[in-house]
Amino acid sequence: MAITVTGVVQGVGFRPFVHRLASGLGLGGFVRNRIGDVLIEVEGGAGTARTLPRRARARRAGGGCDPGCGMG
Q1: Which residue out of 33, 50, 54, 57 is catalytically annotated?
Q2: Total domains, the chain
């Protein structure tokens, strides 16, 4: 499953945030910075993988992604 994240996600601990969240869900994959966005490639069960963006959105107010970032 590929997820593209836009907004201010560099220099705010976003990759470690996603790693902790994915590890806690038993998911693998990678997070790659690109020009203007970040690509998250999630590996694991489809149902669990769909949980990752929902949990990231719910937790972004607490850090890891500024309020203007978009996950899609």
Answers
A1: 33
A2: 1
